From TrEMBL:
It is an enzyme of class 3 (hydrolase). One of its GO terms (molecular function) is alpha-L-arabinofuranosidase activity. Keywords: Glycoprotein, Hydrolase, Signal. This is non-reducing end alpha-L-arabinofuranosidase. Residues 417-602 form the Alpha-L-arabinofuranosidase C-terminal domain. SMART domains: Alpha-L-AF_C. The lineage of its organism: Eukaryota, Metazoa, Ecdysozoa, Arthropoda, Hexapoda. Its EC number is 3.2.1.55. It comes from the Eukaryota. PANTHER family: ALPHA-L-ARABINOFURANOSIDASE 1 (PTHR31776). Belongs to the glycosyl hydrolase 51 family.
Length: 610
């Protein structure tokens, strides 16, 4: 402890005229390293229907009847028909849409359908087709052709039992050749005042129809209004939660998802771009067996080429082959790509030291400005940045918040690319307030060490409540609604309230502040001259800090105080999405020393105007 702090402590004690008690020193006059400007970001991986039926706003399940699905099937689809009408749907490979989407959905009318009756195909969406007050218009599109029928087709969003028709539109005519049809569905406003998921999407033909009628469909698609109204875009409530957290980076696409369960099922990025009618789909890897297949080192070149092409698609100029493809796909400007990670969690393999150099050399040669991230320790090449993952149980993060304090300052920088406290006891398992406080405790350590811990992101980001493969997750949702967990609020707060310069803090454990229960990190935001102090209490009881002292500061102008707290098991859910959420109030204290009672299981952020 330095002389200055000792004298300040003395001063506070003198001012308060009482015994010194527990003290948290904020060494405002001793600024340290720069806080990594990209410290807090997000990691998106396709797991728990994070993308399919999640962030990607497409509402139709099994849109392309993907030939790559295991046991190609009619998942999501059913026949919809008036009582007494005979007909069926099945997969047909005799009427391919094109060379990529070779399976179509065939509707067969088995007996003549009388006037006033209908038959068609329905889709359930991802556990329901949602209606919401803000879903005021939907764009539906599909490819269709028919034999023995020329239209019209009726397109609807209706309740599962057919009793409510939210929106309806017609395609007047179809032909014997596949053609794309598009309609706008505008729900009756009075019907969508409350969110509802008990609905289906239907495309039907009305009688009279003859018994030999066959109608073929493919790429059936339905979009509600999207984030920033982008065609083929993102779901508004989910994308908004990400945008609100002001993340500094976006890690994508994975994760195990990148690898797939087998080499054939890996993430083939070339098949995920362009016209949706030219995408064969991709098999998810969760809930299956990750087989840990590998390619012989001398057969790696095509995979390395594919990675280089992917980078070119992202950052190449429009004179390059793949840069031109990006422009054709609607994004002429390169994306801001800075970091490329080679592999995923390769501590499970024993030949990373062979494969890492293959990618490393190829990427460095072509893109010397890109920074490489390794997923494990490597001897054969430099590791500029290493990706560490942590999924510990409750209590581990507080005990290990000093993990990076002693890490070498001249070694690899650290990217904590996945972390979350796993405390899955209630159903559905999600982050409760106490586990969120645990995460926050570790995050104070990452911010304190952000001279070497340059980036961190919570994982997994999203979970559909009907497909909980991995828990906990940051943001949960059903087909219509969503909520952030306390853990996501911790992420949000650490990210939106940041300084640029680290300010050292220390607390006096001997005087009543239990070092293993109370955590803190401070920084200064230079442009606004704000001191930011984050205090985490992981204790079952409140902890009184008798004096928070601001070293080298006479008085302040006060500021704001934001607190996230709740009971040990408190969680959020669709019914009460903001049960545990941050509350901000004015912080009127202007003294350079004040007491603070940190609530049990809490994150407090003081923003003090200097
Ligand atoms: C829906 O169609 C309208 C009009 O063509 C278009 O402006 C809008 O971007 C489309 N929205 C989506 C999500 O495709
Ligand atoms: C585009 O990128 C290629 C490959 O990196 C380079 O050779 C070429 O000079 C660039 N063109 C422009 C206009 O920058
Ligand atoms: C880092 O510094 C330590 C102590 O000076 C030294 O032993 C070590 O070799 C250095 N490591 C690197 C990667 O330069
Ligand atoms: C802080 O000051 C504001 C403005 O003077 C006042 O409205 C507020 O009630 C005060 N807050 C507290 C916690 O005393």
């Amino acid at each position: 402890m330095g002389f200055l702090k000792v004298s300040l402590l003395f001063l506070v004690a003198a001012v308060l005229g009482q015994s010194q008690g527990s003290v948290l020193n904020v060494q405002t006059d001793q600024p340290g390293h720069e806080i990594s400007p990209i410290l807090w970001g997000i990691f998106f991986e396709e797991i728990n229907h994070a993308g399919d039926g999640g962030l990607y706003a497409e509402l139709i399940k099994n849109r392309a009847l993907s030939p790559k699905r295991h046991g190609m099937n009619l998942d999501g689809y059913a026949v919809v028909k008036s009582e007494g009408v005979d007909g069926r749907i099945y997969l047909s490979t005799d009427h391919p849409l094109n060379s990529v989407l070779t399976t179509s959905l065939r509707l067969n009318v088995d007996n003549a359908v009388a006037a006033g009756q209908r038959i068609g195909v329905s889709n359930t969406g991802y556990w329901g087709i949602p209606t919401r007050p803000d879903y005021t218009v939907y764009n539906a599109s599909f490819y269709a052709k028919a034999v023995g029928f020329t239209g019209p087709l009726t397109v609807q969003i209706e309740s599962k039992d057919g009793s409510i028709v939210y929106a309806t539109a017609q395609v007047p005519q179809i032909t014997e050749e596949f053609q794309r049809y598009e309609v706008t569905l505008t729900p009756t406003p009075a019907l969508i005042q409350n969110p509802s998921i008990d609905n289906i999407f239907t495309i039907t033909a009305n009688g009279p129809l003859s018994a030999d009628t066959s109608i073929f469909f493919n790429v059936i698609s339905l979009f509600p209004p999207t984030f920033k109204n982008r065609p083929n875009g993102l779901r508004t409530d989910l994308a908004q939660k990400l945008a609100d957290a002001k993340p500094s980076f976006f890690r994508f696409p994975g994760g195990n998802f990148l690898e797939g369960n087998t080499i054939e099922e890996r993430f083939i990025w070339e098949e995920t771009i362009g016209d949706i009618a030219q995408r064969p789909g991709h098999m998810g890897c969760w809930g299956l067996l990750h087989r840990w297949d590998s390619i012989a080192p001398e057969e790696m070149q095509p995979y390395i080429d594919s990675a280089l092409n992917e980078i070119e698609y992202i950052i190449g100029n429009t004179s390059t082959t793949w840069g031109a493809r990006r422009a054709a796909d609607g994004h002429p400007e390169p994306f801001p790509l800075t970091y490329v990670e080679i592999g995923n969690e390769d501590f499970v393999s024993d030949d990373y030291d062979i494969r890492y150099p293959q990618f490393y050399d190829a990427i460095r040669a072509r893109y010397p400005n890109l920074q490489i991230i390794a997923t494990d320790y490597v001897n054969t090449r430099p590791v500029p940045i290493r990706d560490d993952h942590f999924y510990p149980g409750y209590g581990w993060f507080p005990n290990n918040h000093r993990l990076y304090d002693e890490a070498p300052r001249n070694g690899s920088k650290i990217f904590v690319g996945e972390y979350a406290t796993i405390d899955n006891i209630n159903w559905p398992p999600q982050a409760n307030t106490a586990s969120a406080a645990d995460d926050a405790a570790f995050m104070t350590g990452m911010e304190r060490n952000s001279d070497i811990v340059i980036m961190a992101c919570y994982a997994p980001l999203f979970a559909h409540l009907n497909d909980l493969v991995w828990m906990p997750d940051g943001i949960y949702f059903d087909a219509a609604q969503s909520f952030a967990t306390p853990a996501w609020w911790v992420q949000h707060l650490f990210s939106v309230i940041r300084g640029d310069t680290y300010i050292p803090t220390d607390s006096d454990a001997n005087e009543g502040l239990p070092a293993e229960k109370i955590f803190h990190v401070a920084s200064r935001k230079t442009d606004t001259n704000t001191l930011i102090l984050k205090i985490v209490n992981t204790n079952t009881e409140d902890i009184m800090i008798d004096a928070v002292t601001l070293g080298g500061i006479g008085s302040t102008q006060g500021g704001t105080m934001t607190v996230l707290t709740g009971g040990r098991w408190d969680e959020n859910d669709l019914q009460e999405p903001f049960r545990v959420s941050p509350k901000t109030q004015t912080f009127n204290v202007t003294s350079n020393s004040f007491s603070y009672n940190a609530p049990a299981f809490s994150l407090t952020i003081l923003e003090i105007q200097l």
